[in-house]
User: Fold this.
Amino acid sequence: MSYSIAEAARRSGLSIDTLRYYERIDLLEPPARDAAGRRAYSEEDLAWLSFLTRLRTTGMPIRRMREYAKLRRRGLASAGRRKVILVEQRGAVAERIAELQACLEVLDYKIDNYDRIEQADAALHREASA
Assistant:
């Protein structure tokens, strides 16, 4: 099955401009063309776009994504280096999760504190009106 650029954009959640940009900077190999010369994206292309989107979501820089894409085109010979890139990114993601968890704990503490303040204030108002 093949998809037009508009359908590939819709399915991937990326804009048409982003698809063209990814192709231009060698993140995405140029897709096949249909009989009319229009881009025809494959299921494999869409799976790769999904992976690229995940890498971007992790905060991986485009430069590193381009390195990974270039290595991917080399096949199994580059598997070791690709694994290193992913392990390093996983470490960065784990650090970010820990930072966010610490932020969440601070927010929870502050929210609980405001709950206590509101409860104490409500109790004072009940006593004053009694």
